[in-house]
Design goal:
Layout (H helix, E strand, L loop, with lengths): L1 H26 L4 E17 L2 E16 L22 H29 L1 E13 L4 H5 L6 E5 L2 E2 L3 H9 L5 E8 L2 E8 L1 E2 L6 E2 L2 E11 L3 H28 L1 H5 L4 H11 L4 H19 L7 H14 L5 H31 L8
Helix pairs in contact: 1-2, 1-7, 1-8, 2-5, 2-8, 2-9, 5-8, 7-8
Length: 354
């Protein structure tokens, strides 16, 4: 069920993108032949005016067909003046840009909703989520899922109290009481020492549980939403650059399989977290589509600008050759991403945490 919700969410982001192209084309008097929820072939369709509206058999995203997207397309004489290629370059650029713009605006809105109404509030527990490598906890045999009950005879359900007790015993060997699979066990642990503070360190990360949501004032939520856009945009461009120069970045690349898997897991962390993740994906779609490569929107914008500068249409052969370069590049990235995702599926999985 969560996978289905995640797929619908990503499909909604694509639909919003196509809706931007559709509304802009209509606003400039272009002929929009089709607008589908999902991809053709149509399961249901109805023609209203000159546009065929429908629901596609492939329930992911949306589809819009604007007359005359290529000059080789056969266009009826009576609608030539309303074809995409017959419109001024500035109108074509706005029509193409409207898709990414809708994704950008949606991302801002979702970030705003997250901060304004849906920030998750978590409470730390005494259940161990992760074990740090080469720590006292690892050497003593403490495992993720264990519940820490007491340290050196000091018992508490408050993780802060247990941390304070651990911090006060750097370098000491103490007894800790844990609960594992309903059974209590006493373990002997040598407490480590934090390099910066000299305080004791067990080497565990406690789990957290969702206890509710928090809200921000409207102005503060708006400021945080816009700040998120700027920060994430910088991170995305940095990630794109690192794909070329850093093997680790390529290892972290995901395909749609990974995106769906991770977004489905975030639903369990609260609806606010899921909306924020959708906003993150929507912003990524906006940025990715504006890259100056065909067949992306950014490539179409670049070719429109070149056409305006040179004063004549670009030859079909040039357009096709550049498109092939872009398709090969995206194909390579897709193969890397899906290979990484398959390795995650058969290995550690798609792990996320609050």
């Amino acid at each position: 069920m969560l996978i289905f919700i995640a797929i619908l969410g990503i499909g909604f982001l694509i639909l919003i993108h196509e809706l931007g192209h559709f509304l802009a084309a209509k606003a400039f008097g272009m002929r929009a032949e089709k607008f589908y929820l999902g991809f053709p072939p149509a399961a249901i369709k109805k023609k209203i005016g000159e546009t065929e509206y429908g629901i596609g058999f492939i329930p992911l995203g949306g589809y819009v067909k604007i007359t005359g997207m290529t000059r080789e397309e056969k266009v009826p004489e009576e609608v030539v003046s309303r074809a995409y290629y017959s419109k001024p370059v500035w109108q074509r650029i706005i029509t193409i840009s409207a898709g990414p713009l809708m994704n950008l605006l949606l991302a801002v809105f979702l970030f705003f909703i997250f901060y304004y109404q849906a920030m998750p509030e978590y409470s730390s527990t005494t259940t161990v989520a992760k074990i740090q490598m080469d720590s006292g906890a690892e050497r003593a045999g403490i495992q993720p899922g264990d519940r820490l009950l007491a340290v050196s005879g000091v018992a508490s359900d408050d993780p802060a109290a247990l941390r304070d007790e651990l911090k006060s015993r750097p370098g000491e060997t103490v007894n800790v009481l844990i609960e594992r699979d309903g059974q209590r066990q006493n373990l002997t642990v040598t407490i480590g020492r934090q390099e910066d503070t000299g305080q004791g360190l067990l080497g565990v990360i406690f789990d957290a549980e969702l206890v509710g949501t928090m809200q921000m004032p409207l102005a503060e939520a708006s400021r945080h939403a816009i700040s998120d856009v700027g920060f994430i945009t910088g991170e995305v461009f940095s990630a794109i650059k690192n794909l070329v120069v850093d093997e680790k970045s390529r290892d972290e690349l995901s395909s749609p399989i990974g995106i769906v898997a991770v977004s489905s897991q975030t639903i369990e962390l609260g609806w606010g977290v899921y909306l924020r993740v959708l906003g993150f994906i929507s912003l990524q779609l906006a940025i990715f589509n504006m890259l100056p490569l065909l067949p992306l929107d950014g490539g179409h914008i670049l070719f429109n600008i070149i056409e305006k500068i040179k004063g004549s249409p670009i030859k079909k052969e040039v357009f096709e050759r550049v498109s092939i370069v872009g398709l090969v590049l995206f194909g390579v990235l897709f193969i890397i991403g899906i290979t990484n995702d398959v390795q995650r599926i058969i290995g550690p999985g798609f792990e996320i945490s609050p």
